[in-house]
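Team,

Forwarding the record for the chain on the shared tracking sheet. I've put the sequence and predicted structure together so nobody has to dig through attachments.
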Amino acid sequence: VTLGALALLPVMFEYYFYPYDFTALCLFTLGLALMLRRRWTWFCIVFALGCLNKETMILSTLVFAIHFGTRRRMARTLFAKLLGFQILVCLAVKLLLLAAFSHNPGGIVEFHLLDHNLPLLRSAGPLAIIPWIVIGLAIVYRRAEKPQFLNDALWIVVPLLGLALFLGYIDELRDYYEAYPIVVLLLAHTVAMILGILVQAK
């Protein structure tokens, strides 16, 4: 699975490739692993580095809030401290970067809903949607038997799609790096279930 995930990465390079892409993928995946293992000191360090690398690191905060906040998996005081830390760090890093690069040309965000995404969606035929439907069904196959952490983490696909629809190219796969390890692991569980391989969900 690991080798397959690495081998598929070049598919993400269709439009552009930036130096921070692999760093974003690495730090976000590492942050999820540390979160799952409750290694909070290391998670906070990785989270801060991830925010400095790319602002979408804040999506790990969504995973944290859903997984630990909705099912009371930790003390409320610790949850509030960790949530507050993540929000403050993300805001501080964003403001610092805006101040540091305020004189650079260009805007803060780009808007591509009208010039790229809507024309692309109008021109896409039904055959273009079928592979994504198959992948989606494979992801949710016997979802209740899969690790709850991965099921909770999958929710970041919603804001990622929204951001890509309005501010990016919806068909630019590098925009979905944060969801990549989650999707790969959920698909791996599906394949394991179909093949009858014993996988213990946590």
